[in-house]
Specification:
alpha+beta; Heat Shock Protein 90; 6 helices; 7 strands; 23% strand; globular
Length: 202
Amino acid sequence: MLDDLELIRAESMRCGKIVRDLLTYARQSAPDFQPVHLHDVIHHALKLIAHHTELGHVETETVFGLKDDRVVCDREQIVQALVALLVNAVEAMPGGGRLTLRTWEPAGGAGRIAFSVGDTGVGIPEELLERIFDPFFSTKSDTKGVGLGLAVVYGIVQRHEGTISVASTPGAGTTFTIEIPRGSIPAGNGAASEPLAGTTAP
């Protein structure tokens, strides 16, 4: 009975993800930009997929290089993009592995921030790399999705006027890197003021 319930849960979540991706891809709603702390957003996304990492025997690591992680973005869309990348990364490590999230300020990228999601999974063949952001294209041989996850991520990054790139080595892993403008942080949103969205007041 427990096995049946787990199957029902997993399939329900899969169907829900497909519907959400379809709606996001079709709607392409305008972002709701608010000042947030990127590291808090990343921690939240990791909490949302904690069950996946636990079941998949995947270790997670955060390497935060940003001294100032404030950014103006649509928090929910960035969470959605991160979750999509994280779930893909976990599924690319069927035998377990390491999931690493990094943040940094890109060299020569004044006013921009960068963050990445890297795994030690199966990797993506070079001939498929140029197609992975195409709608309805999937590298998966099963029926876990309809190939919209990365297309949705790409759309979210575009709406933030950012860029996304991928580096992958078959058998060694894949890393997705996103750069977005930091945006104009409203005055009074420093460390001593009221917390930004995504933080908890002390």
